[in-house]
Amino acid sequence: MLRVVAGVLSVFGGILALVGIFATLRPLMGNDSTSAAVIACVVSAGVSFIAWIWWERWALLVGVLGELLYLLMDMEENTRLRS
Q1: Residue numbers of the domain that contains 76
Q2: Angle 2-29/56-82 helices, nearest 10 degrees?
């Protein structure tokens, strides 16, 4: 059960991290940012799933780090929008 939860958190965290990165870089990418974000989400989910199969603790770590990266990118985006 813990492996399933770790895998879900890992995939979700990786997707959120990459969505945050691409949302931050969107002005540089122009109108094609949606397809790039979808590709990034698929790659992130694949990498996270491989990590989950390889070792569930690493998958949980990837998920937590992904969440932290997403929060940092979101805070940076909000700071930039306020100024």
Answers
A1: 2-82
A2: 30
CA distance 45 to 39: 10
Strands (E), the chain: none
pLDDT at 8: 72
Mean pLDDT, to the nearest integer, of 42-62? 65
Question: How many domains, in total, are found in the chain?
Answer: 1
Nearest to 13 by CA among 54, 61, 77, 57: 61
**H helices present in the chain, as ranges:** 2-29, 33-54, 56-82
The total number of residues shown for the chain amounts to: 83
